[in-house]
Amino acid sequence: MLMHCLTVRFADSASPAQIDAFRSALAALPDQIDTIVATRQGSDLGERATNAHFALVSEFADVDDFRAYLEHPAHRAVPRDGVESFQSVQFVVDK
Which residues form the Stress-response A/B barrel domain (predicted)? Predict the structure, then answer.
């Protein structure tokens, strides 16, 4: 199983509508991309000032399914207005 963890910092100028559009588009991806096994997302609790604002964790069967996800039109269409930066990591776990 391949795990994909994404963290996002929104720009100070990001509007609530931009943030909601980004989050909603990510939440819709499992219904649009069949290579996603499972996904969870949420906003940071604000416990540390240096944390990202938002995180997404998705599971894929393997690296080929993850690559297909990255190239899928629905993933490419996720609006990124208001996003300041992304960081991600992928790693393999036993099932």
Answer: 2-95
